[in-house]
Amino acid sequence: MEKIINSAQLEQVRTIEQKAISEISMESRPAYHLSSPVGWMNDPNGFSVYRGEYHLFFQYHPFSNVWGPMHWGHCKSNDFVKWEYLPAAMAPDESYDAGGCYSGSAIEAAGEHVLFYTGIIDRYLEDGAHDYRQVQCIAKGNGIDYCKYAGNPVITGENVPEGSSKEDFRDPKVWKEEDGYYLVVGSRAEDGYGQVLLYRSDDLKKWEFLSVLDQSRGEYGKMWECPDFFSLGNAYILLVSPQNMRAKGYEFHNGNNAIFLYGSYDRPTHKFEREKITSADYGLDFYAPQTLQTSDGRRIMVGWMQSWDAKFMNDFLDWSGMMTIPRELSIKNGQIYQNPVGELEKYRKSKVEYIGKEITETTVLDGVSGRIIDLQVEITEFHFHHFSIQFAYNDEYEMLLQYNYIRKCLTIDRTQSGLIRDVVCRRKMTAQPLVSGGLGEVLKLRLLLDRYSVEVFVNEGEKVMSSVFYTPMEADGIVFDTDGTACINVIKYDLCV
Ligand code: FRU
User: Fold this and answer.
1) pTM
2) Do strands 287-293 and 271-279 pair parallel, antiparallel, or not at all (unpaired)?
3) Catalytic residue among 43, 97, 228, 481
4) Cα of 46 from ligand 1 centre, angstroms
5) d(CA 85, CA 166)
6) Is the beta carbon of 306 within 6 A of some atom in ligand 1?
7) Which atom of ligand 1 lies closest to the CA of 308?
8) What number does the ligand 1 atom closest to the CA of 304 have?
9) Which of 267, 338, 349, 429 has its CA 20 to 30 A from that of 259?
10) Distance from residue 98's CA to the centre of ligand 1 (Å)
């Protein structure tokens, strides 16, 4: 590959971020979740394997803790747990992306790392007209430096079906099949509702439009952002992040959601037949997830652990935004399961275990506390209406996970986490105890805490709730409580990364 010469704009960002990374203490960051090097981060981008390593890019505004002209930040990992920051990969420095380098994906092809992203054209023409469009572009690189393709953009609004939006046309996700490369991208149909367009190419540069893979008819939000499409077991999954959704019971919530559309796919006609839809995460902070496939065949998903609608800024950190733990997806009885990557287990230390512990009142268990932990709680007897776990707890602060056995409902609540904005603080979902042959009911909870976040995996990954909270590290207590009698098994590990 020829030597890549970076723009002055990108070099400036790289200088700023290098200095910032060395000045921001590691203790002010999550220990095993990727956080922004400096400034603002949103969507995961370019989640891919290149030369045997996992690369993760992200939407990035390094100049402040709020969203601004989008760059692509960059990092890599060998195990999805320990992340190494790399220099920012792209700045909005070309005429076709001067309004921002928006979300996209990456693929390894002929030894090169090829990035796909949306360029934002946002300018005023000589006649005063506003020219706003979103176009799909590529950049090729060696894992550190990336050169934008001279023929950009590679897909424009000229190559969308009749009536589809040229203004809302973004977030390309590319993959390879035996007969060529495929790509899905989000758009809006003539009626204004979101749709996913499918394209095919032989060389990653010339793209042929194939079909509208699926679309909302108003029932699942407006613009569909950040599509991904893959097979899982016998099903095909279309993963999208719709804007402007309406809550349906506990299944979806108002605003920006991420949803799995389960279905079947007929390759010859490029038709996807949708059969079922579920939320990808039932917590407060999860959006714009993207997946990759590892060489051993695992489908791994990572999401932005924040929400556009309920976003709030901490005012004491120099970074803003983090990703979830990458999660392994599997499918059982027609249902997607998500579990933290197995690699996390090698960082578990100092096991503390309680088996058959009866809880009848407010209870603290010796050795069960901390803010960087892997905590498993199994409820095995249910003589109560409510059972709760307060964590990140002290006299002033708490995070609350509460199970209502009568309603079979699990609530996550950050009301007492020191927030001073009136953002959404509580979310509920149904959670049925598992019935294990002869042993009665059991509800399995696994909480991953990492300084400023929690991810609650329920019943071995059947459902997940993710939430961020920004409280002082001294709030590290864990308290169990119930209005009746519960019997629990607890295993706690420190996570030492
Ligand atoms: C989703 C999103 C994408 C877009 C990016 C801009 O969170 O709105 O559709 O590419 O963020 O930062």
Assistant:
1) 0.97
2) unpaired
3) 43
4) 13
5) 34
6) no
7) 7
8) 7
9) 267
10) 15
Sign for the pseudo-dihedral over CA of 248, 250, 252, 255: positive
Ligand 1 proximity of 185 Cβ (cutoff 6 Å)? no
Candidate from 40, 59, 223 with most ligand 1 atoms within 8 A of CB, to mutate:
59
Asked whether 225 lines ligand 1 (CB < 6 A), one says: yes
Give the per-residue pLDDT at 208: 98
At 32 the three-state DSSP class reads coil
For 455-460, the CB contacts below 8 A with 24+ separation are: 455/283, 455/305, 455/324, 455/325, 455/340, 456/283, 456/401, 456/410, 456/412, 457/338, 457/339, 457/340, 458/410, 458/431, 459/431, 459/432, 459/434, 460/337, 460/339
- Ligand 1 atom nearest the C-alpha of 102 is 10
Q: Contact at 8 Å (CB) between 479 and 389?
A: yes
Active site residue 43: yes
Return the closest-CA partner of residue 40 out of 306, 310, 423, 283: 306
- Tell me if 171 CB under 6 Å of ligand 1: yes
204 φψ region: left (φ > 0), alpha (ψ -120 to 50), beta (else): left
Max distance between CA atoms of the chain, in angstroms, equals 77
Measured in Å, residue 102 CA sits from the centre of ligand 1 at: 6
> 277-306 burial by CB neighbour count: b if 16+ within 10 A, else e?
bebbbbbbbbbbbbbbeeeeeebbbbbbbb
In this predicted model, what pLDDT tens digit does every residue of 223-242 receive, in sequence order? 999 999 999 999 999 999 99
User: 171 CA distance to ligand 1 centroid (A)?
Assistant: 7
Confidence of residue 301 (pLDDT cuts 50, 70, 90): very high
Q: Is the CB of 168 under 6 A from ligand 1?
A: no
From the CA of 496, how far away is ligand 1's center (Å)? 33
Provide the pLDDT confidence category of residue 309 given band limits of 50, 70 and 90.
Answer: confident
| Closest ligand 1 atom, residue 70 Cα | 12
Sorted by sequence, the CB contacts under 8 Å of residue 93 that are 6+ apart come out as 7, 9, 10
Give pLDDT, residue 1: 64
pLDDT digits (tens, 9 = 90+) for 411-470: 999 999 988 888 899 999 999 999 977 779 999 999 999 999 999 999 999 999 999 999
C-alpha distances (whole Å) from 100 to each of 114, 122, 166, 274, 388 are 18, 9, 16, 33, 44
HSE on the CB side for 482, CA within 13 Å?
A: 19
How many whole angstroms separate alpha carbon 497 and alpha carbon 493? Answer: 12
